[in-house]
Design brief:
Oligomer: single chain
Largest sheet: 13 strands, mixed
Helix content: 25-40%
Number of helices: 28
Radius of gyration: 30 Å
Strand content: 15-25%
CATH topology of the largest domain: Rossmann fold
Number of domains: 3
Amino acid sequence: MMSMVRLLPLAFALLWLGGLSPAIAQEQPAEGELGRTIDVGETGYDVRRLVMASACPHACPWGELGEFVRDAMAPLDYEIVLCRNCNRIYGPPLVARGERPPPLDRINLATGTTERVDAPVDFGVTESGMLDQAYLGEGIYAEEGRFPNLRLIAKLEDPTYLLVAVRADSGITDLAQLAALDRPLRILSDFQGAADAVLAHYGLDRESVESRGGSIEFFMRADADTPFDLVVSALGSSANNLESRPWTALSEAHDLRFLDLPEELIANIIADGRAQPVTMRWGYLRGVDHPVRTVGRSGEAIFARADMPDDIAYDLARAIDGARTDLRWFVRPYSYDPQTAWRNFSVPLHPGAARYYQELGYMDESEPPAAANIEVETSLGRVSGVGEEGLAVFRGIPFAAPPVGSNRWRAPQPAQPWPGVRVATEFAPACPQPDQRESAVFERHSLRQSEDCLYLNIWTPAEAPDARLPVMVWIYGGGFNNGATSLPTYSGENLAARDVIVVSIAYRIGAFGFLAHPALTTEASDGSSGNYGLLDMIAALQWVNENIAGFGGDPNNVTIFGESAGGIAVSILAASPPARGLFQRAISQSGGSFAPPRTANEGGSNVPTLVVAEAHGERLFETLGVDTLAEARAVPVEAILDAVGPAIPGNLFWPVLDGVVIPDDQYELYADGAFNDTPILVGTNDDEGALFVPQGPPAERYIGGVRAGFGEHADAVLETYSGGTDAEALRSSRDLFRDTAFAWHTWTWARLQAEAGGSPAFVYYFEQRPPYPDIPMLADWGAAHAMELPYVFGTLRPGRMDWRDGDRHVSDLMIGYWTNFAKTGDPNGEGLPEWPRFTPDAQQVLYIDETPHAGSVPNSEQLETLDSYYRWRREQRAHEQSR
């Protein structure tokens, strides 16, 4: 029940949605474009024509505040273009990204918005709690992650109450009676979160209300004739606008009894600091016959991006203050308070606005804005980041030229220097990729995408350039076909808080990053093609080597770390000649690349030979209908993504044994001592395969698949990974996937490092089962693939999982192990259970759960079976090569 109680502070902070609930805010037209799109001409800072995220013209709060700002800025010779459909949840992301408004929908038309502005959005207005949540990446913005480049310009007061009322003839005189009701209860609410949270305090939830024949309906659709017993809404106001009008209609048409909130519930609601205890006075609405104890919130925020020039932010703050007396004539009871105009929870104040408030004496000069810009000189020019929670953070620094046009399918080219200071406060777009699929455990993230995507991000705690802190460079996973540095799980602040610098790098993926083709091979000076994504990683590491000292990092103490495809990339770089000397330690989570190369459809192999990869590239060119490289480089991104589908499976685009970046079978390279000898920390999760095999194949199909992939070793594989029944086939399918894709590679890598290298190896086995949603499909899952990621990054955010204290304990341990390894090459440290070194004679691993402990290699019988299979494959390959 407590998880539902926690929803109320969230719900209360999200209620001001430009007149609509989140569920309804997602509604889109079935087909075609509604209204009309207008070209408003040139806009932007340089021409003093700014586009403002506003809302509808029919007394929508953000609509009339948009008009207020527009009129206030006119005397200062600014023209403000109002985006009327930048409302609901859209405003903060549109401003943060500088994007154009979304298409109009039926809701826009219903509230009087018939035109869409076709221009990038510069600044906006929204509810102050929503701005805070967008900045932090919480609530309805949790899936998209933080928008750290948002900055406050001014906050205006706009008080509303959380009100709970019942019909006077309902017999309910106290909220505690709700749990004992034995009849249907009809509820009106802003949206289900608020109703569920209030009801949960009394042991009720939406399901139980509806199981008794009751209902929870949308408050804003209510009128005098709507049947109800109980109303719960945080839009309590006497203002006659869309959001609050139902309170007036219901209270005038019915005799209502307004109920006090108990102090315990009030304490829960105000816990996040976005609301405060208040008393609604007698007579505020009809039926308020006593002072009502409740909570209230007050605040609408005018906000901008960090890159808004200081003089424009200054003028905005000055104009709003200068026109404050006009606020008294609007529909809602707005006001301007010099003591609060420059504060908005955790959202930093824009430095330009801060200068105005300091000059007027509203804020003391000893209180500088929380996000003062931080500048660092790089080899290409100065970059400006921001201060966040004791760190300096830089997002979107280019490390290579855009791989577009003639640079498509070429090694990364040097980025061009820039004049002045480049603002680096926003993540760059992700590299082109298919849309993410929704799953039971992973939230879908809407990614901005562009072929111009070779950028990196830095989180540094260094207080001076000479700090010489260890550096951890993150390489994302995603099967070499998906992934982005901007995913909230990968946010680096928690690792950086342990005195390391975190760098996350982008690389090309899918057909853009791993396409080989005979024409490309001929064009290349080294006679190779297909490993552009790996070359991107190497270029980023070269940038780190040249520039990280300016951010307080030690270029001679760099750890590369990655998961899944990122972990495989770490493995490949550990034996890649072009990467030699660019890193001193390596961490691979569920990654490794030690199987023989793929020449057909052999089981357990992924890396194709150049000949095989070139054949895949020729198939793509045929699908696209192009004959030359020039034609292929002119094909739109979307057409290539569409072509990589059923006809050309995405998993055909994988790192290639090209003889240059990947010079040979990695197993053989290690056996010959031809690798980059560094300490390694590697491991897998106990149920990796569950994510890939959620429902097993029938036993007959499982057995057929093993026989097709493993040839004469199929019998041995089936003896170890039995599939006599459907249940056995499911378990064995998962285990075989875990071991062929990840576990055998990890074990083999550790053995080869321990035998052939001079640096230590440390191996883990992650067994902490996350608190999965209560879904039957997940009931038998252990620690599935990628489940360790939020523990490593400390990003156990509210969402689909209700994280426990034990999970936070495991996360703290893993952050300690990972950062210790980055500092010294040894994960052990004070307060951590001992992690033994993996040696040929003592193959010990650390089992990671709430009580980490050392033990022998898990699943050793299965791994030995696969080791025999891969040995046979190598013998076959050697025989073929000798012929």
